[in-house]
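thought: user wants a sequence for this fold. calling inverse folding tool.
action: design(structure=
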């Protein structure tokens, strides 16, 4: 009996670490968004896996490989000194990685829809950085929709939640009288998108990220998934990956980003599953004290190899595995990584 009890506990422990549930996901409706470090990461994911992601929404992010494996470049050129960004060199780097197969063929970006947001009052990531990102996307034929005229600080803009629009600080969600989530969804999903409806609390679930973690990944133990009612019933649904910014971890603002940026309300109305992966803070190894996504190379180790922006990146490949586990068929050519 004692043996059976131990065996039962062991089986339950395995079940508690099960992978994400599988759903009926339309592979032509997979998109990504992010704020701040999540914005930089969303750019990396979009460029590296442009055959998978059909569009992106970037809030206060910047060009692909902007930091060039340097935290100093990340915190200067790519945030407050955009005149130092070597844009043409970065564009050449994208082409080089594409030609080598380290990222998807950059041709996939042509005619994809991209939504770009930068507040005129943003003193963390200056508008010039986002202007360079727009130029990079347009260089590769993406169709950009830019919202650069709102007097917002460094934040995700909503029309019903958060600090004053020009406030800088936690939770980095500001009430600007502008529904950023609905606006970007309209760009990414087109004219068929319907108006948001209230989210349903029980449709938000958490999952164990330990299956996707490695020593340097900086993943929190828990991630979140929002699954609309019709998606739970087996309907074909879109998938959106939403990446929080620095200082928006579960330890900083709890589930504030997951619940209050307005993404779930649009998702519920339009049958779009939302994946909210979560990063945690770490002090020594990796050195990630603000809980940022890796857009300068900390997940590569002490001597960054530059893999963090490629399909081999620790965080990048883990996010793709999450997408596969959610039900996008792994035998499709686009998953031959």
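)
observation: tool returned 337 residues.
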């Amino acid at each position: 009996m004692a043996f059976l009890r131990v065996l039962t506990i062991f089986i339950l422990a395995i079940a508690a670490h099960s992978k994400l549930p599988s759903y009926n996901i339309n592979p032509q409706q997979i998109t990504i968004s992010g704020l701040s470090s999540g914005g930089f990461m969303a750019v990396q994911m979009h460029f590296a896996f442009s055959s998978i992601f059909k569009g992106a929404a970037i809030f206060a992010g910047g060009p692909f490989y902007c930091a060039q494996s340097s935290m100093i470049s990340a915190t200067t050129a790519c945030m407050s000194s955009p005149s130092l960004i070597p844009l043409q060199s970065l564009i050449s780097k994208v082409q080089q990685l594409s030609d080598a197969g380290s990222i998807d063929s950059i041709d996939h970006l042509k005619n994809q829809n991209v939504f770009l947001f930068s507040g005129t009052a943003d003193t963390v990531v200056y508008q010039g950085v986002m202007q360079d990102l727009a130029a990079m996307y347009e260089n590769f034929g993406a169709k950009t929709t830019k919202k650069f005229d709102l007097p917002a600080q460094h934040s995700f803009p909503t029309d019903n939640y958060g600090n004053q629009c020009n406030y800088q600080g936690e939770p980095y969600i500001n009430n600007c009288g502008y529904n950023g989530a609905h606006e970007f969804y309209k760009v990414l999903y087109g004219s068929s998108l319907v108006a948001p409806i209230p989210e349903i609390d029980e449709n938000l679930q958490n999952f164990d990220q330990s299956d996707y973690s490695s020593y340097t990944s900086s993943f929190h133990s828990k991630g979140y998934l929002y699954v609309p009612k019709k998606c739970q019933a087996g309907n074909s649904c879109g998938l959106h990956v939403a990446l929080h910014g620095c200082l928006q971890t579960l330890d900083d603002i709890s589930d504030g980003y997951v619940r209050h940026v307005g993404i779930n309300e649009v998702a519920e109305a339009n049958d779009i599953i939302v994946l909210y992966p979560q990063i945690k803070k770490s002090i020594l190894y990796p050195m990630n004290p603000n809980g940022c996504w890796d857009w300068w190379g900390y997940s590569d180790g002490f001597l960054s190899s530059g893999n963090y922006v490629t399909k081999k990146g620790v965080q990048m490949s883990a996010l793709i595995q999450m997408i596969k586990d959610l039900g996008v068929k792994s035998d499709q050519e686009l998953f031959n990584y």
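thought: summarizing for user.
answer: Here is the designed sequence. Residues 1-18 have pLDDT under 50 and may be disordered.
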